Amino acid sequence: MQASLTIQRTLNGASLCNSSKIRRSTAAGFTGRPDVRIVQVKASEQQQQSAPVERLQYDKILLTILDSNPYLSDGSRQAISTAADLAKIHNSKVTVLVVDQPGAEGDPTVKLQVINKSLLEAGCGSVDILEKSMESGSVLVGDVADQIAADLVLISSEAVHTKQVDANLLAEFVPCPVLLLP
What we know:
Layout: E1 4-10, E2 36-42, H1 45-48, E3 60-65, H2 74-90, E4 93-100, H3 108-121, E5 127-133, H4 137-148, E6 152-156, H5 157-161, H6 167-173, E7 178-181
Helix pairs in contact: 4-6
């Protein structure tokens, strides 16, 4: 397998950031502009034989549901489906964090039953469900991700749009990758 790297260099010291300024090189290695030359560098044998990059592995997935609808919105259903699919692919354990707003009306058991049924129908075998009530969902998600040593946090972007969580705080408090689903 022959790998090569293309390096663009300007002869007068200024770099080109606009890709529309890059032109096809001629046989001599010049682009037609006297100040730009394209150089191809071959990868060394050691670089070519280095170990392949390992695939990401998610052993513990934290699925966060911040939905006031007891029968769940489309975004929450998509997050559940994605979590179940990832759990099957990676043979992961899924922990569902259901965050209820303090003083929320309605029976939370309906929501828990819908979540559990959806995950089981999707073929997700190992599921834990945590129910918490807190004002700041972002901090809570980070704390629970720390407690369970989550490898990935899944959350519907509806929670960000409805201001139930702050994306900046999620980035600050969550110690692992966060997947925001539309």
